[in-house]
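Supplementary Note 2. Why include the ligand at all?

Several targets in our set were suspected to adopt different conformations when bound, so apo predictions alone were not considered sufficient. For every target with a known small-molecule partner we therefore ran a joint prediction. The input for zinc ion is given below.
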Amino acid sequence: MKICVDPGHGMSNRSPNVFDTGCTHTENGFLFREADIVLKYGLTLKDILRARDIDVFMTRDDNTDQAPVGRRAQNAKNAGCDKFVSIHVNDVEDDSAHGLEVLYNDNADKALAQKMQDALIAATKLHDRHIKHRPNLAVLKFDGPAVLVELGFIANDGDRAVFLNPQMREKICVTIADVITAS
Ligand SMILES: [Zn+2]
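The joint prediction is reproduced in token form.
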């Protein structure tokens, strides 16, 4: 089994040689960037999977890797991946929005998305925003099981306290690894 781990955003995601930070939030003068947060998640998930002797392909390993969003699914396929998991942080204007959701593209992945959602809600106790069908997300157009995890909302203090916590990051990545490798 080979898993593609896709930390969202990053260099050349939307435009060549432009760094896409993803969503951002400033709190007490500190700028939080989705691209940095989800890269840490991706690298943690990679380490957990490799420790289980599972092959991993990263769509990007750092903030300089060229990772156009329209090529990620194909790059994963070319690398021989069987499954694809993308990691993001959510954003809206309204700071009251909170919780975790798992997105899927193909109807065949609905059961996997639901398992991922249930396991992550149990692990984090975050608000359950339920799974969402997103047939037009380019990154999910992977030929094989694929889900996208939205860890929580960057502007919500409660969500951020959860997903920025290193112990919680480890727990979330163990949970993602358990679900993606089980099915
Ligand atoms: Zn994102």
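Helices lie at 34-51, 72-78, 110-124, 157-163, 166-182. The chain has five helices and ten strands. Comparable summaries for the other entries are listed in the accompanying table.
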